[in-house]
């Protein structure tokens, strides 16, 4: 019985194949431009305000939407829906459970995953977006549900526009695979 359980941990396939230099260059270019657009707004336009545009989960989104463009988890529905749904849940979890941060953190991520599954918007960085709403700075907490719009909604939208523009330049790349 335990042998079968532990046997599952061996895996069933080999490592994925290497990608071409062209794929690496296009992934780098997209990630650079996508994060640069959001970071420029954060550090130059929003500097000195109580707003932020750059959150850590966008780094993970960049891996998906510029580096794994064919993944179902990288598609626009998942990118936008996953982040926005998770942000709402993260803010609500913080507001309901901030007296017990361990509870707010665990409820936010688990509930975000459940809702992303239920809405077909599973985007792994969404879990981080929910968690950031709970464990983020006072600046993030003070935003309340505005966090869902800025940085999450607008930031993810900017990264999506860059993904649409960059990922379709190369002949061998196409983005998105689906919208809805």
For the structure shown, list the relevant keywords.
180 residues, mainly alpha, 67% helix
Shape: flat
Q: What is the H/E order?
A: HHHHHHHH
Helix content: 55-70%
Please tell me the total number of domains: 1
Instruction: Please state the oligomeric state of the protein chains shown.
Output: single chain
Number of strands: 0
Structural class: mainly alpha
Task: Give your account of this protein's structure.
The chain has 180 residues and is mainly α. Helices cover 67% and strands 0% of the residues. The protein is built from 8 helices and no strands. The protein has helices at 2-7, 21-45, 57-67, 76-97, 101-118, 125-135, 138-143, 146-167. The longest helix is centred in the first third of the chain and has 25 residues, at 21-45. The model has no long low-confidence stretch (mean pLDDT 96).
Produce the secondary structure layout.
Elements lengths: L1 H6 L13 H25 L11 H11 L8 H22 L3 H18 L6 H11 L2 H6 L2 H22 L13
Helix pairs in contact: 2-3, 2-8, 3-6, 3-8, 4-5, 4-6, 4-8, 5-6
Brief description of this entry?
This protein has about 180 residues and is an all-alpha fold. Helix content is about 65%, strand content about 0%.
